[in-house]
Amino acid sequence: MSTEPNTESTNFDDEDYPAYTMGRAAEMIGATPGFLRSLDEVKLISPQRSEGGHRRYSRYQLRLAARAREMVDQGTALEAACRIIILEDQLAEALRINSELRAPAELPTTADS
């Protein structure tokens, strides 16, 4: 019996693991492979490449792509949609970091008890 962790299930639990082919990714978000290529061109997402050179997408990248498709479908220009998504993502990360940095300061000390 192997004592090594099951990396396959660990990888699929990782939202940054490039698990999806271009065709499957496009199907999942209701877009075309060309739309996904355009997101790469405008630098919203940069899929990893398999050993054969095929694009592979993560769940995180698919969330961004689905948001872009939604905004484009509502009439937002692709470049503007991608810029908005990048800024939203940066803001969410900054808020997460801010929250983490504030958390230790909010814990009561033994002197406060």
| Class inferred from helices and paired strands | mainly alpha
The global form is globular
| CATH architecture descriptor name | Orthogonal Bundle
Q: What's the rounded overall pLDDT mean?
A: 87
**What percent of the residues sit in helical stretches (DSSP H or I)?**
55-70%
Provide the succession of SSEs.
HEHHEEHH
> How many domains is the backbone divided into?
1
Report how far apart the termini are.
Answer: 51 Å
Structure write-up:
This is MerR family transcriptional regulator. Strands 1-3-2 form a three-stranded antiparallel beta sheet. The chain has 113 residues and is mainly alpha-helical. It has one domain (14-104): Orthogonal Bundle (Multidrug-efflux Transporter Regulator, Chain: A, Domain 2). It has helices at 7-13, 22-29, 33-41, 59-73, 78-106, and strands spanning 20-21, 48-49, 55-57. It has five helices and three strands. Helix 4 (59-73) crosses helix 5 (78-106).
Which structural traits does this protein have?
113 residues, MerR family transcriptional regulator, mainly alpha, 3-stranded antiparallel β-sheet, 6% strand, MerR-type_HTH_dom, single chain, 5 helices, 3 strands, Multidrug-efflux Transporter Regulator, Chain: A, Domain 2
